[in-house]
C-alpha cells in the first residue's frame, strides 16, 4: 500500500476542494493517505511518504502562498528528494496559472519528479475535480 501525503494551504476553500478530490482519488486506488494543512505538516510527512501532492493558491504577486507554504517548500531545496513522485495543485485569480508553471519548474529543480499538476481559475469545475481525483489515483500507483 502506497503512503501518500497531501499538504496544502487554502483560505477561501478553492484549493481545499482540490485537496479533498485528490484524497478521494488516492483512497479509491487503495493508498494510505495523510492530508494536512501546511501549518500542521512536518518535513517527515514528505520524507516518509511514497508520493506527495502539494497545493497552494497564487498569492502575493503570482507566487505560492508566502507565509506558510513558501517556508515549508523552501526546506526541500537542499534535501535529497531523489525524484520522489509529486503532483502540484492550485488556484489563481488572474495570473492564468503562471504561478504554477514557476512552481513546477522549481520542484523539478529540487529533484522531485513532477508527474502532473493542475491550476484552476478560482473554484474548480466538475472536469477539474475529476482530473484531481485522477491525479490522486496516479499517486497511489
Ligand atoms: C490576498 C490575496 C492575494 C491574491 N493574490 C493573487 C495573485 O497574486 N495572483 C493571482 O492570480 N491570484 C491571486 N489571488 C486570487 C487567489 O489565488 C484565488 O482566489 C484562489 O482561488 C484562492 O484559493 P483559496 O480559495 O484556496 O484560498 C489572491 C487572493 C487573495 C485573497
Comma- or semicolon-separated keywords:
141 residues, alpha/beta, Rossmann fold, 5 helices, 6 strands, 30% strand, globular, binds flavin mononucleotide, FMN, Flavoprotein-like_sf, Flav_short, electron transfer activity, Flavodoxin
Count of distinct strands: 6
The first-level CATH class name:
Alpha Beta
Global mean pLDDT: 98
Q: Please give the share of residues in helix.
A: 25-40%
Q: What is the CATH superfamily label?
A: Flavodoxin domain
Indicate the overall shape. globular
**CATH architecture assignment name:** 3-Layer(aba) Sandwich
Q: Could you give the order of the helices and strands?
A: EHEHEEHEHEH
Structural domain count: 1
Say what the CATH topology is. Rossmann fold
Structural class by SSE content: alpha/beta
* Ligands: flavin mononucleotide
Gyration radius over CA: 13 Å
Q: Which residues form runs of ≥5 with pLDDT under 50?
A: none
The largest β sheet comes out as: 6 strands, mixed
Q: What percent strand?
A: 25-35%
Number of helices: 5
Description:
37% of the residues lie in helices and 30% in strands. The protein has five helices and six strands; from the N terminus they run βαβαββαβαβα. β1, α1 (14-28) and β2 form a beta-alpha-beta unit. α1 crosses α5. The mean pLDDT is 98. The structure holds flavin mononucleotide. Residues 10-16, 57-62, 91-95, 122 line the site of flavin mononucleotide.
